[in-house]
Amino acid sequence: MSTLTIGNAKPVIPPTDQCYVGVFTDDLEGAGWAGWEADAQVSHVAFYGTYTVNNSSIAPQIASSSTVPATGLQIAWGFSGSVDLAHIPTGVDDAYITSTAQNLAAYGKPVFLRPNWEFQGTWYPWAAWDLGGNPVTGNTPADYVAAWQYFVTIIRSIAPNVSFVWTPFCFPPSESSPAYLVTDWYPGNAYVDWHGTDVYPGSDYFYTYDNTVWGVDQSVKYAARCGKPLMIAEWGIGQPQADDDDPIWINQHLDFIENNPVIKMHAYFSIDDAQNGVDYQLSAWPNTREVFRRRVANNPRYLFS
Q: Of 4, 10, 1, 15, whose CA–CA distance to 257 is shortest?
């Protein structure tokens, strides 16, 4: 069994034959993760996840995690730059990058940092296109790669406890023009520690585990080709399959993890997304919850610390 080095602030070491369990919640200060653990019937998980507001300080996330009984954190870090991605390597945001690194180092435990995730969509300010599908100046894949390489170099020099996770949402073809490949955003193996992907079994998007362009199998193959561990950085049971709480979806997800040893972590998205009308919390789906308890809570494949 692999374990993490905590005291001297080392990055995450992928387990040899297991898969870390993580969870995203709305509340890192107590009620959110405690409620999920009660639903899942586990005493704790290895990594607790949270988000930052774009270009904001990471200090509140670090501070709120101080009471969480976690091995470490997974932080989805939004950083489109004060101007755009293209300007980040000019040094205009160096003070912000340095402050972020100092806060991460002060945490003193391993951190999965997921900068600018789901980049090939249109819904985040670091995307190459706006919501109307129009190209955004300064946010091309080449700009993304240059910015990533720049801030990774700075953060690594200050915070050795950070593992950088590159996180597309599967490998679909570009739906906007100009058309890019997902790999056009890849910063290179030297600047990436883990690969990630976000998948929501049975939903309108991110739903297949096969070899199609929307299939998670594409992420498995690319991570293996690059020699990187793969993280299912977000996954959750929501609509439309949640209308009947069919356990086929969680069983499909767990079967996939257990059949693909390159997957070294998965983090459940335990959030009631009222804005989009989807409640992903296990408490909302009793059939799914029971499968999780039976297949994960006492399964040696899954690592909780």
A: 15
**For the segment 256-285, what is each residue's pLDDT rounded down to a tens digit?**
999 999 999 999 998 888 887 788 888 888
CB within 8 Å of 27: residues ≥ 6 apart: 33
Specify if 184 maps to a domain.
yes
When divided into structural domains, the chain yields a total of 1
Bond from prior residue into 178 cis (ω within 30 degrees of 0): yes
Angle of the 286-295 helix axis to the 248-258 helix axis, nearest 10: 20
Q: How confident is the model at residue 66 (pLDDT cuts 50, 70, 90)?
A: confident
When pLDDT is cut at 50, 70 and 90, the band that residue 148 belongs to is very high
Alpha-carbon torsion 269, 273, 276, 278, what sign? positive
| Gap between the Cα atoms of 113 and 285, Å rounded | 29
Distance CA 45, CA 300 (A): 14
Q: Which ranges constitute the DSSP H helices of the chain?
A: 31-40, 59-64, 94-107, 141-158, 216-226, 248-258, 286-295
The percent of residues above 90 in pLDDT, for the chain, comes to 56
Residue 155: inside a domain: yes
Evaluate whether 75 touches 58 at the Cβ level (below 8 Å): yes
Find the CATH number of the domain harbouring 74: 3.20.20.80
Q: Where is pLDDT greater, at 204 or 302? A: 302
